[in-house]
Amino acid sequence: MQEVCDCIDAGKLKPGDQLPSTAELAERYGVSRNTVRDAVNRLLAQGVLRGHQGLGVFVAKKCPR
User: What is the pLDDT along the chain (65 residues), one digit of tens a residue?
Assistant: First the structure.
């Protein structure tokens, strides 16, 4: 999700910050929840985000470029 990486790079989201819910991101960007989940899963696999069961998804580091 390029917009999330842009927010991280711009300092709007910093390591430790929590991402909004899947539903909120889907509404904000006008995409399906599945699209949001796919994008989040890609960023989780890259180590950019870190998921915590029952707590949410958090920024772990900057996006690779």
Answer: 688 888 888 999 999 999 999 999 999 999 999 999 999 999 999 999 999 999 999 999 988 76
- What is the distance between the alpha carbons of residues 54 and 52, in angstroms, rounded to a whole number? 6
Q: Candidates 1.10.10.10, 3.50.50.60, 3.40.980.10, 1.10.10.60; correct CATH number of 2-59?
A: 1.10.10.10
Q: Are 60 and 17 in contact (CB under 8 A)?
A: no
Residue-range domain boundaries for the chain: 2-59
In one letter, which amino acid is 47? G
